[in-house]
Amino acid sequence: xxxxxxxxxxxxxxxxxxxxxxxxxxxxxxxxxxxxxxxxxxxxxxxxxxxxxxxxxxxxxxxxxxxxxxxxxxxxxxxxxxxxxxxxxxxxxxxxxxxxxxxxxxxxxxxxxxxxxxxxxxxxxxxxxxxxxxxxxxxxxxxxxxxxxxxxxxxxxxxxxxxxxxxxxxxxxxxxxxxxxxxxxxxxxxxxxxxxxxxxxxxxxxxxxxxxxxxxxxxxxxxxxxxxxxxxxxxxxxxxxxxxxxxxxxxxxxxxxxxxxxxxxxxxxxxxxxxxxxxxxxxxxxxxxxxxxxxxxxxxxxxxxx
Length: 306
Ligand code: NAI
What we know:
This is SDR family oxidoreductase. It holds the Pfam family adh_short. This protein is an alpha/beta fold. It has two domains: 11-246, Rossmann fold (3-Layer(aba) Sandwich); 251-294, no CATH class. The chain has eleven helices and ten strands. It has helices at 20-31, 53-64, 79-90, 113-141, 152-156, 162-183, 207-212, 219-225, 264-269, 271-274, 286-295, and strands spanning 11-14, 35-39, 68-72, 95-98, 144-149, 187-194, 236-240, 243-246, 251-252, 280-281. The chain has an eight-stranded mixed beta sheet with strand order 3-2-1-4-5-6-7-8, with helices on both faces. The longest helix has 29 residues, at 113-141. Bound molecules: 1,4-dihydronicotinamide adenine dinucleotide. 1,4-dihydronicotinamide adenine dinucleotide (NAI) binds next to α1 and α4.
């Protein structure tokens, strides 16, 4: 058995920590020495209502284990207040797990702008506001660990979840740039795409499956990404039921028309080659994406002209 990873001296904010995945993250961090801000608005799955009960319950559980935690009942849309709670109670913030979430599923044809906007506000704006308020504190102390919670629906799309897919993919984009901006200051940002039984996934998962996929199976990865020994940055991971894997972009060798004139007919003619994954590359940055295209011998900018 490996040495236990501890979080003594660290201050962690876990949003949406009153239930499901967030609760499991908060309990583990609290059990291992972190002082935890247990944030939860306490509303329903669709973003209605609010209550202090969910956050209070998890704070009580952490305290019963001998840990230290405070409740925060603000919506993640008031991210500055959540971070202020960490500063007021514990004087610092080291770890942010952006986990709060709701669903407002409907086919795109029936989706209202309200459904779109609420999902955007909780997932994307909420993650922005909490992380943005914590960012200067983490940068100035030269330490921070941020985890975004995305979804397979964001990565692959899912019927009835256009709003949620948009938001979850937005969080991946946010994390990609924050990883670049934070890395030099040891503020590392990663993203998990979990699968777990919860009241949220219970709306789209058969009950037997929801029971088998315990949130506890996701928390070890989230917690590792928050540990000082973890140097991963800008990663995207699928996790659930004990399975852990990393994702990356893959690009076909493609076809370069170079300086020859071409129109949609030539694109159609080369369609199979453009989509042929028998030879691939895995660009990890804008530079790795763009430079080979521009420097290709076929490119009008080629032969080292850029
Ligand atoms: P859950 O419903 O059990 O927990 C989410 C918590 O977020 C709730 O306690 C809720 O009160 C809180 N919350 C909602 N809106 C909030 C707001 N504005 N401010 C603060 N707290 C708020 O759901 P679950 O499954 O634990 O989801 C956690 C995260 O994981 C979500 O972001 C969800 O989209 C994501 N996720 C979950 C999957 C799963 O299989 N359970 C799959 C993919 C992603």
